[in-house]
Write a structure and sequence with these properties.
This protein has an eight-stranded mixed β-sheet. It has a five-stranded mixed beta barrel with strand order 1-2-3-5-4. The protein has a three-stranded antiparallel β-sheet with strand order 7-9-8, with no helix packed on it. The chain is built from 15 helices and 16 strands. A hairpin with a 3-residue loop joins β14 and β15. It is about 35% helix and about 25% strand. It starts with 5 loop residues before the first helix and ends in an 18-residue tail after the last helix. The protein is an alpha+beta fold and about 475 residues long. Bound molecules: 4-amino-1,4-dioxobutan-2-aminium adenosine-5'-monophosphate and magnesium ion (MG).
Length: about 475
């Protein structure tokens, strides 16, 4: 269907008319397709607000009633109806430009039980109708920013010479070692086996399989030939964390860089975050302005300050001291050796540093097996990037490149070495110092939009108890 994008019309109506006039058969008539977001009528005129998904703003269509019989436009009035309208563009004081209707074709009628009748629905209500949420301005803005952010991420790594690799979704190895993998099976629900081994042997892969929690281990293997790689794909965690920041299916960006230590990878992570925030600022002004009106006050000022300031860096040991001296009553008590909880992370980044902060050199016992062991024998060269409003968005580390030390860390955790044979080969054959990180894509999206709940960043969120 030949039609004009509303974005082009609203952005520059004059130029649009000049340059596109010849493209349409209908001389000066401009065809527009979209969904009716609202409509209203007075005695002589009816108005349709049309949105086609190309921008957040609607195009107002003006129907001069006495030029039509009612039956010609009546079916276009209900909210949610899809239409193709042609008309002439006329200047309007309030909207810049409006479409004076000449013809209207209803593409799909929309009955009264369409659930999005009101102008404002709560996010809680919208979560009950995820299949219709993209028809709202809120989700149009979220999903478009999701797309822009994805593109900015690829743009950054591609321009920096990273190779995009696709790591498997179905895997046998639990990267984080936290046992939060979803199982993948074709065994019947009542399949039996004398032992667990026999049960898995009868399964599709002849072995226990699951959905990946991280592409890191396979990413490291690719980096061992390509030098600098990144992954960008879905990851899955069967965590029973029913919070506003946890999803069972989320997307992760995981670069892996050879010949880089912890400081090098922190520099890359900081440059990367600044670059993608800058991209969003350059490409999503309408959406950012909209989110500011939705409760994210000062969003753009905050994002500009992210781009223009150095991130803070503090060691875990110093962070613990800051928390202990804070005089604050935390729900989870603080002492050296405990994992930082969201309340601690948010206190550090929101009240102490007031900007993104890398916390470095965590105790070995609370972090994953693959992290480089520091000479002190009790910490690892790992860092989490914490940001105001969210807490952790990046998990990062230099990797243990020494075969013997890596095996020792795995044995200490009781991990089955045989299952990690290929991973260990990377340390056996020409091992190199290397580092990488994982950015949680939805948390990053929350950070740049001000969206408060991860369920509102995903088209169809998967969380514990909800598919
Ligand atoms: O800190 P995590 O567990 O680190 C890893 O998976 C490493 N293998 C990454 C690497 O070094 N290549 O997860 C990385 C990030 C977290 O900082 C967080 O932003 C996000 O992934 N994340 C989640 N996001 C949404 N829902 C969940 N359940 C998440 N779990 C982690
Ligand atoms: Mg982490």
């Amino acid at each position: 269907m030949k039609h004009a994008d509303i974005k082009d019309i609203l952005n520059c109506p004059a130029r649009f008319l000049e340059s596109n006039r010849d493209s349409y058969d209908l001389e000066d008539l401009v065809p527009v397709c979209g969904w009716v977001r609202t409509s209203r009528e007075s005695k002589n005129v009816a108005f349709l607000e049309i949105n086609d998904g190309t921008c957040l703003r609607n195009l107002q269509v003006v129907i001069i009633k006495d030029r039509f019989s009612r039956s010609e436009y009546e079916k276009a009035l209900p909210v949610g109806t899809s239409v193709c309208v042609t008309g002439t563009l006329v200047p309007s004081e309030k909207n810049g430009v409006e479409l004076l209707m000449e013809t209207v074709q209803v593409l799909g009628e929309c009955p009264q039980d369409f659930p999005l009748q009101k102008k404002h629905h709560t996010l809680e209500y919208l979560r009950t109708i995820p299949h219709l949420r993209p028809r709202t301005r809120y989700f149009e803005a979220v999903l478009r920013m999701r797309s822009t952010l994805s593109f900015a991420i690829h743009e950054y790594f591609q321009s920096e010479g990273f190779v995009y690799v696709h790591t498997p979704i179905i895997t046998g190895s639990d990267c984080e070692g936290a046992g939060e993998m979803f199982r993948v099976t074709t065994n019947a629900w009542d399949a039996k086996g004398e032992t667990a081994e026999e049960y898995y042997r009868k399964d599709f892969f002849g072995a226990k399989a699951g959905l990946t929690v991280s592409g890191q281990l396979e990413g490291e293997m690719a980096a061992m030939g390509l030098g600098r790689i990144y992954t960008f794909g879905p990851t899955f965690r069967a965590e029973h964390s029913n919070t506003t920041r946890h999803a069972a299916e989320f997307w992760q960006i995981e670069p892996e860089v050879c010949f880089a230590d912890l400081n090098d990878i922190m520099d890359i992570a900081e440059d990367f975050i600044k670059s993608i925030v800058n991209s969003v600022l350059g490409n999503c002004q309408d959406e950012l302005e909209y989110f500011e009106g939705q409760g994210a006050k000062g969003l753009r000022a905050r994002l500009y300050s992210v781009v223009h300031q150095d991130f803070a860096r503090v060691s875990y040991t110093e962070a613990i001291q800051i928390l202990q001296k804070s005089g604050k009553e935390f729900k989870y008590p603080v002492e050296w050796g405990v994992d930082l909880q969201t309340e601690h992370e948010r206190y550090l980044t929101e009240e102490v540093f007031k900007k993104p902060v890398f916390v470095t050199d965590y105790p070995m016992d609370i972090k994953a097996f693959y992290m480089k062991q520091n000479p002190d024998g009790r910490t690892v060269a790992a860092t989490d990037l914490l940001v105001p409003g969210i807490g952790e968005i990046i998990g990062c580390s230099e990797r243990e490149a020494d075969y013997g030390k890596l095996v020792a860390a795995m044995e200490k955790r009781g991990m089955p070495l045989e299952a990690y044979r290929e991973y260990l080969d990377t340390r056996k054959y020409g091992s190199v110092p290397h580092s990488g990180f994982g950015l949680g894509f939805e948390r990053m999206l929350m950070y740049v939009t001000g969206v408060q709940n991860i369920r509102d960043t995903l088209l169809f969120p998967r969380t514990v108890g909800s598919l």
